[in-house]
Amino acid sequence: MEPRHLEIAHDLMEGIDEGRYAPGAPLPTEDQLMSFYSTSRNTIRRALQELSNRGRIDTKQGSGSTVRQYRPTTHLASPVEGEADDERYTRYVERMKEEQGVEPTQKLRVIVEAATGTLAALLHLDPSETEGFVVIRRCDRYVGPRLWQRQLSYYPDHIAMGSSEGAQLMQPEDIPQGTRTLLAKMGYPQTKSWDVVGARMPSLKDSTLFGLGPGIPLLVHERMAYSGDTPIRFTKTFMPADRHQLLYADGEMTADALQMATDVNIYDH
Amino acid sequence: MEPRHLEIAHDLMEGIDEGRYAPGAPLPTEDQLMSFYSTSRNTIRRALQELSNRGRIDTKQGSGSTVRQYRPTTHLASPVEGEADDERYTRYVERMKEEQGVEPTQKLRVIVEAATGTLAALLHLDPSETEGFVVIRRCDRYVGPRLWQRQLSYYPDHIAMGSSEGAQLMQPEDIPQGTRTLLAKMGYPQTKSWDVVGARMPSLKDSTLFGLGPGIPLLVHERMAYSGDTPIRFTKTFMPADRHQLLYADGEMTADALQMATDVNIYDH
DNA sequence: TGGTGGGAATTGTAGGAATGAATCTCATGA
DNA sequence: TCATGAGATTCATTCCTACAATTCCCACCA
After folding, report:
1. What is the pTM of this model?
2. Which residues 111-140 of B are in CB contact (within 8 Å) with A?
3. Fewer Cβ atoms within 10 A, N terminus or C terminus of chain B?
4. Is B73-261 in CATH node 3.40.1410.10?
């Protein structure tokens, strides 16, 4: 037999799915649910938490619970011939201004670390050598006061520290021409890459960092870029999954696809 | 000031991150934590639930809590020239047999529905016409007794019901040559496509369906495929995010990339 | 040696209660 | 008309208790 709190959770979830509780609409209060299901507050709260953990409701102290609605922004993720990854940011800023009505900002930070484990292997660095360092450029992108995405780019030392141009990578400042162009100028044009996409729940720190409510996964996007057979950059991007979807499309159809993909919502149940 | 249960959760999370509790190792019991933090069982349970909701621990009645470990399988997601999507399944079966030691099976089901909303628009079907139907092929893939992924393919009626070959799509049976080859034979070779990737928490039903524990998101992969400008198929794939990662790579390097990508784990904190 | 069963350990479910904190409502007053 | 503030409403935190269900350990017996 199913526990009472799951029964109630199922019941409420059904109510949401069938539209009896519309997106944005309030659920009954805990007191009302208590008397309706004639059970204790504890049991009701467990049922509500079940919905909350699945990202179906927002609960606010003093006010109540409302049905959550999702409007993820679709990002172009596929590597585009001739376009720097960074140029995308311009487009992205435009979209954000339109959709959210807020001006995005970004904060950069550069860290240098010894390369270890998988990362060293990916960048073809030997961790046993004293030379095995990575330059990490961390870019936090905000929309209004909220952290929208965090991007970590890892460059092998011989690239970032091997030339005067490479030194730009060590500066915690925006690179106007784009890092891809910069790398190309340095003799490392990006010729191929591969991506891994996955998702996981945020840690407590992630939640505070991104200001995430319960039941919202983190989308993780990783890209390994090469110039010929030389690894030039490994990038790791973290995005709250309620606000981000990734788009992969052929070059010719990206514009169309982006248009259509905005209507495709993974939250349709 | 931070609530007590979050303090404790932070503390335990730190213990996991720093390796004081190794993957697979047991956490202290509720009783032990109660006396250690000198607080009530309720508070301890809330702290543990916090970790559980974030997918960091597995809790089993009668036994205790252990630190969870993730070993996602990396899938090739990028559309490959000349290879049917279905051929991948063969490779996938091979991998599963190796990695998990279990034989995968699949169950097919075909449903016909009236096309509405976004789906109708994507497939260029007019929902006002009585003709606007979609043929849905649902493929549930199991590894052992567990549902590993669920794939829904939507075909516009004029393709699935327009020819004798198309009729194969209406049969709830495996199509040995692959649907992509079949569509090509019918005069619809797949020439381009776009993908959307996102993640969300599972509903209660999703959880039962996939046998998902708490804190595991669902990875959702959608693909719209065209033959010229004719939409021929829309595919929606659901996968538990703890067992799946998607790989996008250029044709020439897929093999290498797949090899390396298995070492890239999004769960590194 | 190997299986079995009982009891201990451990988490799951359910109820009750009190207090605190945030929000909302609405009457009051400038 | 609009701002203020008191009180009611609502969720958050924390304690307590009892019993059920599952797992585990180990002594016992065949």
Report:
1. 0.93
2. 118, 121-122
3. N
4. yes
